[in-house]
Amino acid sequence: MTRKIELLAPGGDIEAIKAGIAAGADAVYCGLDVFNARNRASNLSIDELAGAVRLAHEYNCKVFLTLNIVILEHEIDVLIKLLNQIVNLKIDGIIVQDLGVFDIVKKYFPTIAIHASTQMTTHNEGQIHFLKRIGASRINLSRELNLSEIKSLTAVAHEHGILTEVFVHGALCIAFSGQCYSSSVSVGNSGNRGRCSQACRDEYEETAAGNKYPLNLKDNSAYFNLPELVDAHVDSLKIEGRIKDAHYVYTVTDTWRKQINGFIERGELVNDDSNLHKVFNRSFTSSFLTGNLTKDMFIDNPRDYSAKHAVQLKGAVSAEQIDEARKNLYDDRARLGAALVDKVKHLNTEKTELSLKFTAKLGLPLTVTVSTHSDVFVATSSVTLKSAGISPIKRDVLEKHFKTFNSPSYKISHFDFTELDEKLSLPFYEIRAIKKELAFLLNGSVAVVPNVEIPKPPVRPKDPKSTPRLSLLIHEEKDAGLSEFTDSDIYFKLPESFRKDSTKYADIFLRHPRLIPWFPAVIIGKNYAEAVKLLETLKPAKIAANNTGIAYKAFEMGIDWIAGPFLNTTNSHALVTLKEKLNCNGAFISNEINSSQIKKITAPENFRLLYSIYHPILMMTSRQCFFQRTVGCDKPSIDESCMLRCQKSTTITNIKGVSFAVDKQRGGYPSIYNHEQYLNLDAVRDFYRLFDEFFIDLTDIGSGSKEKLDKRTLIFEFEKFLNDERQSKEFLKNMVPLSTNAQYVTGL
Question: Distance between the two ends of the chain, CA-based, in angstroms?
């Protein structure tokens, strides 16, 4: 095989980065202590990042920086300062989730390559086009995709000059990445901010199927699926683990390096994956890749499985045999650790020391010589030195002016003024030019990007007399009759799965022309093709899209579209991206953020802002089945009929006694919802002039065993409330007794 395939290793701290480099990684990804989705990792300082980049590049290893969280409006200035710091560090790319970061980087930092994070839930062809349009050069595909889907999407990506990467080892989320709100809802720590508290790993009351950890997946390992990944033409194989230590990173990366090298050189796989079992793992599965979604993907223990594996492998039964198996494991770990120590002991990430020598002689140019341990750079003035009048060149002035070469990459160790004659003068602009030339040379003869300040996004004019409207969502045709009782926009929720060539949903919209199509967040493969076919059949005047692939198709067709709440929009620059790049007409602001985080968001001109004030609170959606390990299911694995036919529901209860509704609608993915409904009447009062539309979800999805409310009454009371009849507030709260607006209070 001649095609290069990248091995991408995690680096939670500088030692883990060294371990990845020593083990033969082609690239490492790491985060700073801000704006990254692994807050629990040690992470790096700017100085450490600069050192890591220098070291990695010495070994032909790339460095990608994670900025893969949603950004809040008040953080934009801090983000700009950070980008100004990193733009000259020669990082090889940044990993991004937030649409606003795309806007900022493409406009003001165009030399930085952007990689789309797995948090962007990329799983269909339209999303490739969407991400290409907003500036992505690489896409981390969703972990839930199978090999056939990966191959198809990679082909599309390559047609448009985009690279793809796939997670091949490490922890698996049971939820679609970017669409998990369980941690945010339950404890206020959002996965979209890198603070996931891993509710899927929690213990629950034993289910009817006999499981206490019904959501806990094994770890991912595609170690023996390498030939299929090569055949899919994937560009990068990514190892998860930025909260893992250097020992883990070295062991896993080294094991994968040998597997890749062996396959490239001999076309053969290494059959021994024993070292992968000697570091932290929850046992292994590659079932998402193979598309064989069985109960075997789960394990009823979220903790380290390595010792248990060693015991089972040895067939140990007696206490003595078990102790021996564990001792052998720990001895093997020690040997791997010793190998790591030997490999990294010479790897240095310290700043490069600079010595600056100034030579000033009458009638000659001023010369500044910068020396490092390996290079010498010289810059001279374009005019000669003259006898000073009243402003001679002084040492302290030169030292002050050139001390800015102290940076994340360099440290000045010495100023040499022994050849600086006194009482000489030179125009100050010449000194600035020398400094600029030296900065250019130290930057690898690449122009240094100057700091930028970016303007605030334009603010749309707002009619002070305008009042917000109510809009609502339904999901059954029987509720279309509600249009007789309201002038509100009525969105109709489409499923994630469609029968091939079925006209069912097209017929519903034709019978009820007031209904507006509402597309879900996850639409994969043939279901995306059917969703596009529906768009092309209906050619609706307007849609709401929670999926960027459908959004792109609407843009392409000239259809007005609204960005749904599951696009996780949290700042004004994201709105600018949507409008300028995709001709979006409006967007929901995320329900994860609080009132103070909302209030400074501004919308572009002719752009509508929406906010949901009443809905079931989605915690997670999965491609796996939540019923195999809760109520039980006779099927050995999920098949196509499960999506279209199954409509089970149950509850799970954590050890604190809090229950959650597990719901599977016909045509939908299994989902888990909070036991409380979201009801936020305060937002109407707080942002009556900001939002153009307040939204209520009248679907029965996620309601679990809660009493079904009269939808006509709800519409009537919400409309009264929007008209500022204050007595409706208490009436609505009484109608929805199991409700919360905690996220609006807590925020991100």
Answer: 47
- What is the Cα–Cα distance from 28 to 66, expressed in whole angstroms? 10
Give the closest residue to 562 by CA, choosing from 579, 534, 587: 587
Structure tokens at 162: 């985009």
Instruction: Please tell me the predicted confidence (pLDDT) of residue 33.
Output: 85
Q: Quick check: is 626 in a domain?
A: no
Lowest mean per-residue pLDDT among 63-77, 180-194, 378-392, 431-445: 180-194
Alpha-carbon distance of 100 to 601, in angstroms, equals 12
Q: What is the pLDDT of residues 542-580, one digit of tens each?
A: 999 999 999 999 999 999 999 999 999 999 999 999 999
Q: Over the stretch 617-662, which tens digit does the pLDDT of each residue have?
A: 999 999 999 999 999 888 888 888 888 888 888 999 999 998 899 9
Residue tagged 């990366």 (tokens): 253
Residue ranges making up the domain that contains 689: 469-616+677-746
Q: Which of 344, 372, 399 is a domain's end point?
A: 344
Tell me the pLDDT of the chain averaged across its residues: 93
- Of 283, 295, 296, 291, which Cα lies nearest the Cα of 629? 295
Distances (CA, A) of 101 to 39, 77, 98, 485, 598: 19, 12, 5, 42, 17
In the chain, % helix, strand, coil (3-state, to 5) comes to 40, 20, 40
**Structure pTM?**
0.95
633's CB contacts (< 8 A; 6+ apart) are 625, 627
Q: Beta-strand (E) ranges in 207-306?
A: 219-221, 236-239, 284-285
* Residue 333 identity (one-letter amino acid): R
Q: Which of 344, 247, 250, 241 is nearest to 30 (CA)?
A: 241
Per-residue pLDDT reduced to its tens digit, 95-139: 999 999 999 999 999 999 999 999 999 999 999 999 999 999 999
Q: What is the dihedral of CA 244, 248, 250, 256, to 10 degrees?
A: -110
Tokens of 113: 């390559």
Closest Cα to residue 291, out of 146, 497, 435? 146
* Residue 326 and residue 361 in one domain: no
Q: Report the C-alpha gap between 517 and 503 in whole angstroms.
A: 14
**Total of domains in the chain:** 3
DSSP secondary structure letters along 432-490: HHHHHHHHHHHTTS-PPPPP---PPPPPPP--TT--PEEEEEE-SGGGGGGGGG--SEE
Strand-by-strand arrangement of the 376-384 sheet = 376-384, 365-371, 352-360, 410-420
Segment 437-452, tens digit of pLDDT: 999 999 999 999 999 9
Do 426 and 474 sit in the same domain of this protein?
no
367 & 327 share domain: no
In the structure, what pLDDT confidence band is assigned to residue 18 with cuts at 50, 70 and 90? very high
Q: Answer yes or no: are the C-beta atoms of 154 and 237 closer than 8 Å.
A: no
Gap between the Cα atoms of 715 and 702, Å rounded: 19
Mean pLDDT of 392-400: 93
31/568 Cα distance (integer angstroms): 21
Which residues, including other chains, have CB under 8 Å from residue 421's CB and lie 6 or more apart?
360, 361, 362
Task: Based on the fold, state whether residues 53 and 104 are members of the same structural domain.
Answer: yes
Contacts of 364 by beta carbon, 8 Å cutoff, 6+ apart: 384, 385
Q: Is residue 719 part of a domain?
A: yes
What is the Cα–Cα distance from 255 to 251, expressed in whole angstroms? 6
Half-sphere exposure of 610 (CA within 13 A, CB side): 26
Question: Distance between CA atoms of 17 and 245, rounded to whole angstroms?
Answer: 10
CATH number of the domain at 548, please.
3.20.20.70
Q: Quick check: is 82 in a domain?
A: yes
Residue type, 544: A
Q: Is 161 left (phi over 0), alpha (psi -120 to 50) or beta?
A: left
